[in-house]
Known about the structure:
The chain is of the alpha/beta class. The protein has helices at 25-32, 37-46, 63-81, 88-96, 132-143, 157-170, 197-215, 218-226, 258-265, 292-300, 320-332, and strands spanning 2-6, 17-21, 49-53, 56-60, 120-121, 126-127, 146-150, 176-181, 230-234, 246-250, 273-278, 306-310. Strands 9-8-10-11-7-12 form a 6-stranded parallel sheet, with helices on both faces. Strands 1-2-4-3 form a 4-stranded antiparallel sheet. A hairpin with a 4-residue loop joins strand 5 (120-121) and strand 6. Helix 1 crosses helix 3 (63-81) and helix 5 (132-143) runs parallel beside helix 6. The longest helix has 19 residues, at 63-81.
Amino acid sequence: MATSVLPPSSEHTTAPEMLLEFPDNRLLIELCGEFDRNLAEIEQRLGVQIVRRGNQLIVHGEIDPSQKAVELLEALYERLEGGRPVERADIDRELRLDRSDEEVVPDSQMELFTGGKVEIKTRKKLVEPRTDAQKAYVKNLFEHEMAFGIGPAGTGKTYLAVAVGVSMFIQGYVDKIILCRPAVEAGERLGFLPGTQEEKVDPYMQPLYDALNDFLPGKQLAKLKEEKTIEIAPLAFMRGRTLSNAYVVLDEAQNATTMQMKMFLTRLGEGSRMVITGDRTQVDLPRGVQSGLRDAERLLAPIPKISFNYFTSKDVVRHPLVAAIIEAYEADEPPA
C-alpha cells in the first residue's frame, strides 16, 4: 500500500490531498463497506471527504484530520490483510484508542493475548477493547487476582470481564466460571415469581447469560452449566463457600450491602480470580443502606495487588445516545 501527498486540486482550496493506493482491490471493497458505508462513517467522524478511484482513495480535508483518516484507513486495511473483518465497531475502536504508547506484553502473559495485542480469544469471537480505559481494564483482568470495574452502563465492564473469564477457562488457567449478582429489584416490585429456584432468579441473571451466549456455542454452554463448570447464581448463594481455581465475577456490585461484599471478597481461594463490577449511580438498595461497593473502594484502594479501573461516559460503546443520556443525568446531579 502506497501513500502520497498531492498538491491542492484547485486554486479554491489550500489543503493538500492525500492519496492511498491499495494493491488488493478485493480488500479495498471490504474496506469501503457496503455502499461505501465505512467511508461515510470515517467522513462523518473526522470531517473529511474520501473519493474512491479504481484502487485508490483520495482524502480531502484539513491536514490533521486527513492524516488521521489516512492512518485509520491503513490500520483497517492491515486488519483485512490479517483475515479479520472491518465493521463499524472496528472503526470506532481505532478512532478511540491511543496507539502511541502501545507496549509489548510480557512473555509471561503473551499466551493470554493475540500477537502481543490486548485481545481476548473466545470460542465464538475475538473480543477487542474499544477505548483506552477498556484496554487497561482487560490487561488488569489478566494480570491481577482481584480487579474492580466501576463506571456507567454501556462501558463494557461486565461483558469484558466475562470474555476474559471464558478465555482463561478455555486456556486452562481456571477450572470453572462463577458469575453472580445481588438479586435486587431495580425500583419495581416484581412480587412472587413461580417456578423452580433457578427459574425464580433467572430474570436477575439474564445479562450474564447474554454475555456467555456471545462467547460460547449454545450446546457447549448448556453442557458446562449442567456440569456446574459454569455457575450463574445470586450473591447470597456464595455464603459459606471457598472458591478455588475459579474465575468469579460479581456484577451490579453497587447493590451488595457492606456485609455481602465482605462475604463475597473473602470467598477467594487458591488459584482463583475475582472481578467486581458496578455503577455507583444505579444503587437500588433501600434508602439508608450503604452500598458495599463504596466501602470496598474506600477500604481496599491502598492494597497494591487489587486493581481499580474507572470508566466514564466517553467509554460507552453502546448506541451514541447512551453516552449523551448519561452525560445529561450527570450534569443534572446536585453538587456533592
